[in-house]
Amino acid sequence: MAALTVVPRRSKARGHADLGWLNTYHTFSFADYYDPQFMEFGPLRVLNEDRVKAKTGFGKHPHREYEIFSYILSGELEHRDSLGNVEILKRGDVQFTTAGSGITHSEKNDHPNKTCHFLQIWVKPDFAYLDPGYVTQTFSDANKTNRLLPIVSPYLDTTNAPTDASSTTVLDNTIGVHTDLFTFACTLEPGQSVVHSVQSAHPNRKAKSSGNGARRLYLHVVDQTGAITIVDSNTTLQAGDGAFVTEVKSRQTLELSNPTSEKVEFLLFDMA
């Protein structure tokens, strides 16, 4: 097994802004937070952990090029966009937008008293000027308890595949993304562990890869309770922490365990 390198991204070291209506932490440079050491990681450009107070939210604003998805942890978030989509997102929902050549949207918490807690993630696609698209898919707690549930994977045809649930993706029952990035969600109960097998290169990106099967991973522990230990490096991540994992190759395995007495939720990104 190749020796992996793990560099923790501690929660308190993240960028932070408390605007009253929004309490947000940034893994990468975003808005008024800038650190040249943390600009992006592979195609992963933004990983914000947001808490939006009741009866507030993000007003109508534009996006281009990036693919953006929201992983809802608790509360409710109303989405409206220039494609005509309107829906209220709840725990378990993953809302995915291909901004492509340009869209506008708003994200608001219209609940009378509950805060909405969600992860906002931006991914850079391999192609510019994609057709804008939108899809929402629900992933139940039962399906991601003590297992790594794939929620996002690359389209088999990455050129300009439509963003809808019927399009063919590398992994079944996942939302498609236009780059070599897989996302897994998991809630680990106390004392439980899971093993991740590093993905193989996307079939349409082999010419762009290094040819030696090199991959990279990013692990983000939701800022709630519990902790995750990366067994292979004896590294423990607390709530809100993340970790850059490099020097890994396709089909290499990574064991993750929960050493605490509380359940813990996390996302794992596996990318070229």
Automatic annotation (TrEMBL):
Alphabetical list of InterPro entries matching this protein: Pirin, Pirin_N_dom, RmlC-like_jellyroll, RmlC_Cupin_sf
UniProt xrefs under PANTHER family: QUERCETIN 2,3-DIOXYGENASE
Similarity comment text for this entry: Belongs to the pirin family.
Superkingdom per UniProt: Eukaryota
Protein name: Pirin N-terminal domain-containing protein
Organism the protein comes from: Dimargaris verticillata
Ranges of residues in domain Pirin N-terminal: 12-123
